[in-house]
Amino acid sequence: MKKLFFVLFAAVAMCSTAPAADLPVAEPMYRVQASIPFTWTGFYIGGHAGGDFFSKDWFLPLSANNVAAGCVVCPIGAGGHNATSWLAGGQVGFNYQIAWFVAGVEADASATRLQGSSAFALTPVAMTINSKTDSIGTAAARMGIAFDHTMFFVKGGAAWARDTYFTAIPAAPIFQSITETRWGWMIGVGLEWAFFDNWSVKFEYDHIEFRRGAETLVPVATGAFALDFGIEQSLDLVKFGLNYRFGPGPVVVARY
């Protein structure tokens, strides 16, 4: 009887374990983190600060106003002056990246306090000529070469400056004056580095040129007279900036 029970138990055990050998083995589950290649594509906004420098050259052309004021040797040079100051402002732009090439547009505006003066004598009047620039802006195309999170770029386009020109004599701090917005062209070069997700910092140098503008300084003080000047101007800007780009982050996570 015991022998028969042992044989039956062994047969049942073999029958129950045989199908289990044919069951599929479950594959392990993996958590995969997939990286999206970094891109400069997207709209961005930011701010900047730095310094600037201007150079002004003044001329007296031959004109009815200047002859009436006593300039019998016109046209003549009236001298010039330089100035340096701080600047601060903001920028907005758009980039589009294809492989290593980045193309875009950018507009910026800066406040500044550039002011310079120099002595000038128009017989029998001795005066100083003065220049002030209180704001500067550019609108430019931008092209860059990207090395992952680092981009070297050049830019070029239009520029404007809000200028005031005035003369002064000992008896009148402002003798003649005019304020206007001047337009010119600009070129620039810079380096930008994305240090965290959508944030980047940049260094930029810009050069701006304005053609000789014909300016009529109108009388301000009692006894003043109108004078016509031709004024040439160039500006050099150094900017350190911070940008935030609107776009996808650099990493996504998926399950498989």
General description of the model:
- The protein has 256 residues and is mostly beta strands.
- The chain is 8% helix and 71% strand.
- It has two helices and ten strands.
- Strands 2-3-4-5-6-7-8-9 form an eight-stranded antiparallel beta barrel.
- The longest helix has 16 residues, at 2-17.
- It starts with a helix and ends with a strand.
Could you name the CATH topology? Porin
The CATH class name reads: Mainly Beta
- SS elements, strand count: 10
Number of helices: 2
Largest sheet: 8 strands, antiparallel, barrel
- Total number of distinct structural domains: 1
Q: What does the average pLDDT come to?
A: 86
- Work out the helicity level: under 10%
> Main sheet: which strands, in order across?
2-3-4-5-6-7-8-9
| Proportion of residues in β-strands | over 45%
CATH architecture classification name:
Beta Barrel
Structural class: mainly beta
Low-confidence stretches: 4-9, 251-256
